[in-house]
Amino acid sequence: MSKVYVFLAEGFEESEAVVPIDLLRRAGVEVVTVSITEETLVPGSHGIPVTADTTIGQLTEPADAIFLPGGLKGTNNLKESKAVAELILAHKEAGKYLTAICAAPQVYGLMGLLEGKKATCYPGVEDKLLGAEWTGGIQTVAVDGQFITSRGMGTAMDFGLKLVEILVSPEKAQQIANQVLYPKA
């Protein structure tokens, strides 16, 4: 079974986190929500608090993927965390998936990790995807090697189903899309 760490920082966009988490858990993926501080209660950008499963200081092993939800304030908090940067680099070196939605792909871009990769993000953030080939509005989700990025809250279903497709199987992604009455998969 695959394992995904979802890094939650104060100000994260709730739907961008919860929709993919829901789809991944339906697919049997072990999803661990991780507060990037020592507090497990993490307030979202619209005042919805989420209780994380653990904190970043308690992580002891790598996952198959790291997932960064967007939200401008949440993304800024992710960018400022040395612990987040260290875990991203360790997962990159180990060849694990690095995923992000909305404003959060800039975390990878500003770290220089998207050089020569196709990536997408929320419009207006593309200048922070340093060295990436921005796919713009052409795709709701961009996949290039170990990087999976998406545009925003309206693409959270596509993004979550793409994660299921890659981490589990295309058949499982289609099965879940059918179960939740999502017509696009």
Mean pLDDT: 97
Radius of gyration: 15 Å
Query: Which H/E pattern describes the elements?
Result: EHEEEEEHHEHEEEEHH
The helix content, as a percent range, equals 25-40%
Largest sheet strand order: 5-2-1-6-7-11-10
Question: Structural class, judged by helices and strands?
Answer: alpha/beta
Main sheet summary: 7 strands, mixed
SS elements, strand count: 11
- State which percent range the strand residues make up: 15-25%
Query: Could you say which overall geometry the principal axes of the C-alpha atoms support?
Result: globular
Question: What does this molecule look like?
Answer:
- The chain is an alpha/beta fold.
- It is built from 6 helices and 11 strands.
- The strands form 3 sheets. Strands 5-2-1-6-7-11-10 form a 7-stranded mixed sheet, with helices on both faces.
- Helix 5 packs antiparallel against helix 6 (170-179).
- The longest helix has 13 residues, at 14-26.
- It is globular and about 40 Å long.
List its salient traits:
185 residues; 7-stranded mixed beta sheet; two-stranded antiparallel ribbon; 6 helices; 22% strand
Quick synopsis:
By secondary structure, the protein is α/β, with parallel strands linked by helices. Helix content is 34%, strand content 22%.
Layout of SSEs?
Elements: E1 3-8, H1 14-26, E2 30-35, E3 41-43, E4 49-51, E5 54-55, E6 65-68, H2 72-80, H3 82-93, E7 97-101, H4 105-110, E8 118-119, E9 133-134, E10 141-144, E11 147-150, H5 156-167, H6 170-179
Parallel strand pairs: 1-2, 1-6, 2-5, 6-7, 7-11, 8-9
Antiparallel strand pairs: 3-4, 10-11
Helix pairs in contact: 1-5, 5-6
